[in-house]
Design goal:
The complex is a heterodimer of chains A (112) and B (116).
Chain A (H helix, E strand, L loop, with lengths): L2 E5 L2 E5 L4 E8 L3 E9 L6 E6 L5 E4 L2 E5 L3 E6 L8 E9 L8 E2 L3 E6 L1
Parallel strand pairs in A: 2-11
Antiparallel strand pairs in A: 1-3, 3-8, 4-5, 4-9, 6-7, 7-8, 9-10, 9-11
Chain B lengths: L3 E4 L2 E4 L5 E7 L5 E7 L5 E8 L5 E2 L10 E5 L2 E6 L8 E10 L3 E6 L3 E5 L1
Parallel strand pairs in B: 2-11
Antiparallel strand pairs in B: 1-3, 3-8, 4-5, 4-9, 5-6, 7-8, 9-10, 9-11
């Protein structure tokens, strides 16, 4: 059975204190790994799709990397506005398009 | 990206009643998806709604409980039928704009449903 596990569950950072979130997965045939940001009371906001091991993508202070078993979301010099829940999801090749299997998320709080 | 709106944004309903949630997209899309996010949990796919065909439901979800309509390429509805408190969740629709070039899925703001 496919599994997506995110760690830590929660992370409290000082402004400027860089850190990494982990998403480990087990899936037969990965079509893509997705990162989303979700603010309270809102729908997930798309950040990145990664397709193959070794791939990296960046957006502002966020950088996502992918290996064969896990993905990392690095937050460099975070600001309070980076506070959110970060969700990781995988899409398996055998599944229908659109079926994303989500992890439980990492809640990030960045304090000034 | 896509601009996705949902109505209502939230509702409080009595058990045994039904609620229809609307999802509107600002561009034509082939596939729309409905997800559920139960309190404190992550998102789970309910069904895929394709225009012109029956919706495809994931394991654990049935058409009688969650009927879906997809009358055109920009609109879909999800009905939560015969509700119980266990149906209290956030319901989200999402779209996949161009999976061939960019496999990106965008979500609406969600409908927060509370069943008493």
């Amino acid at each position: 059975e496919d599994q997506v596990t995110q760690s830590p569950e929660a992370l409290r950072l000082q402004e400027g204190e860089s850190s990494s979130l982990n998403c480990s997965y087990t899936v037969s045939g990965l079509r893509g790994l997705f990162w989303y940001r979700q603010d309270p009371g809102k729908g997930p906001e798309f950040l990145f799709t990664l397709y193959s091991a070794g791939e990296e993508k960046e957006k502002e202070r966020l950088k996502a990397t992918l290996t064969k078993k896990e993905s990392f979301l690095h937050i460099t010099a975070p600001k309070p506005e980076d506070s959110a829940t970060y969700l990781c999801a995988v899409q398996a090749e055998r599944d229908s398009w659109g079926k994303l299997q989500f992890g439980a998320g990492t809640q990030v709080v960045v304090t000034p | 990206s896509a601009v996705i709106s949902q109505k209502p944004s939230r509702d409080i309903c009595q058990r045994g009643t039904s609620l229809t949630i609307q999802c509107q997209v600002d561009s034509q899309v082939t596939m729309m998806f409905w997800y559920r996010q139960q309190p404190g949990q992550s998102l789970t796919l309910i069904a895929t709604a394709n225009q012109g065909s029956e919706a495809t439901y994931e394991s654990g979800f049935v058409i009688d409980k969650f009927p879906i309509s997809r009358p055109n390429l920009t609109f879909s509805t999800l009905t939560v039928s015969n509700m119980s408190p266990e149906d209290s969740s956030i319901y989200l629709c999402s779209v996949d704009l161009d999976r061939v070039r960019n496999n990106e899925q965008f979500f609406g703001p969600g409908t927060r449903l509370t069943v008493l």
